[in-house]
Amino acid sequence: MYKILKKQKWSDTIYSNWIEAPFVAKAAQPGQFIILITNQKGERIPLTIADSNAKEGWVQIVYQVVGASTLELSLMNEGDSLYAFVGPLGIPSEVENFGGKVLIIGGGIGIAPIHPIAKKLKELGNYVVSIIGARTKDLIIMEDKMREASNELHIATDDGTYGQKGFVTNIMDDILKKESEAIKDIWAIGPPIMMKMCTRVANEHNKQIWVSLNSIMVDGTGMCGACRVSVGGKTKFACVDGPEFRGNLVNFDEMMLRQKQYCDQEREALMLLEEKIRRQASNG
Ligand SMILES: Cc1cc2nc3c(=O)[nH]c(=O)nc-3n(C[C@H](O)[C@H](O)[C@H](O)COP(=O)(O)OP(=O)(O)OC[C@H]3O[C@@H](n4cnc5c(N)ncnc54)[C@H](O)[C@@H]3O)c2cc1C
Ligand code: FES
Q1: Which atom of ligand 2 is the closest one to the Cα of 222?
Q2: Relative to the alpha carbon of 46, which ligand is closest?
């Protein structure tokens, strides 16, 4: 069960795996995520469903190696099986035919979770205007898939190595200046700071915006409280009440502070794993 059917390396730190998971594939909807565990002693890793195929029974995940658990996942190969793969979790995106244009913004690894939302919105008959961005050209992922899922695709890189030089928010602001009325809804997924800035631009144009909160999660069932966020002054759990919320109501500063709280333990776990890998390599 949960066999890695295919694995691709897209950049120094970004990988995509296609996992055999027929029940998850059958039920998956845009905006939802899974929690996987690589081995019996592994940590739980929440990852968004980037694509799925109910007929063929697979789920695609795209992940960036940022610490011990994602490094462990990246070391698994095609044919290996994951210990657990639970989902789909979370409330699906509120997509429908809005009778006009929708604006979709994906930053960095956030391009993967925004893809199924764009795809579904286009299938439903919306005119999908997408903006994808990353620090540099090599980190722009899923360009072909995003082109297919969009009626218009804009690309931005911070260093100008591809597309327009600058942030996704520059293009977002230009689009809203020209056609704010025509844009019926907005989704933005990426690093918290990007979602905060996109929300600021949306607020300046009096627009509502959806964001997907990747707060730290433990059980993924609403019991442990690890993923709590403040939305409209109320406590919400990203795993069961989200992960999508109206960005206009999210307290991003509090969320970003909470994400940093385990930094020391995370660094230690990564160092221990790297040391173990080095020892295994030198023992042949
Ligand atoms: C609903 C949800 C969907 C997600 N979807 C994706 C996805 O599609 N692709 C992807 O690459 N990542 C995604 N993430 C983030 C991913 O789960 C974390 O990067 C991963 O769990 C980190 O584990 P680690 O042990 O490798 O790193 P750790 O050692 O735990 O952390 C290393 C660094 O990553 C940061 N970090 C840890 N957990 C998170 C988190 N949940 N969100 C953001 N930063 C974190 C830490 O602050 C630290 O700086 C998602 C998170 C959530 C909650
Ligand atoms: S992860 Fe435990 S309450 Fe959400």
Answers
A1: 3
A2: 1
CA-nearest residue, atom 3 of ligand 2: 222
Query: 86, 164 in Cβ contact below 8 A?
Result: no
Instruction: Please tell me the distance between residue 238's alpha carbon and the centre of ligand 2 in angstroms.
Output: 7
CATH for 4-89 (2.60.40.420, 2.40.30.10, 3.40.50.450, 3.40.1400.10)? 2.40.30.10
Domain locations in the chain as residue ranges: 4-89, 101-212, 216-236+249-284
Encoded amino acid at 233, one letter:
G
pLDDT in tens, 165-222: 999 999 999 999 999 989 999 999 999 999 999 999 999 999 999 999 988 888 888 8
Q: Does ipTM exceed 0.90?
A: no
Does the annotation flag 280 for ligand binding? no
Res 261 pLDDT > 90: no
CA atoms within 13 A on the CB side of 224: 11
Cβ pair 194, 134 in contact under 8 A: no
Tell me the pLDDT tens digit for each residue of 94-104.
Answer: 999 999 999 99
| Residues with C-beta less than 6 Å from any ligand 2 atom | 217-220, 222-227, 237, 239
Q: Which amino acid is at 263?
A: C
Question: Is CATH 3.40.50.80 the classification given to domain 101-212?
Answer: yes
Rg (CA), the chain: 19
DSSP string, 11-39: SSSEEEEEEE-HHHHHH--TT-EEEEESS
pLDDT band of residue 279 (cuts 50, 70, 90) is: confident
